[in-house]
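Lab notebook, bench 4. Still working through the backlog of constructs that have no structural model yet. Next entry is a single chain of 129 residues. Request: give me the structure tokens for it.
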Amino acid sequence: MRLVVHASDYEQAVHFFRDVLGAPVAEEYASDGGAHVTILDVGRATLELANDAQVELIDRVEVGRRVAPHLRVALEVDDCEASTHDAVEGGAAQIAPPTRTPWDSLNSRLHAPAGIHLTLFQELGQPDG
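Model written out:
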């Protein structure tokens, strides 16, 4: 699956996702008339369909109130605290800080470049013992 995002500030969006969040470039193309596209490898894609109650639950857990628009992108990271800090330093606006969820992940919520509503999440897993 490929998610295609129209980024009016293309350079800012590429910088944020490639350089700040570390998504490697898979392909890049330029065409006549100044057309550009950069395809970043952000891992395996899934399509998560959630009903109203689930969206409200996720927002309540991660943010404390309903904030999600129709589409939210979630990216798994190794260190949610550090990645959230880097994202904010790199141009994202923090909506909610990293928060431990009932499903045992650490999730933060951001407004990212290109108008993307973004969740960064770190799977915490079960403690040893």
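Notes after review: The longest strand covers residues 93-100. The radius of gyration is 15 Å. Flag for follow-up if needed.
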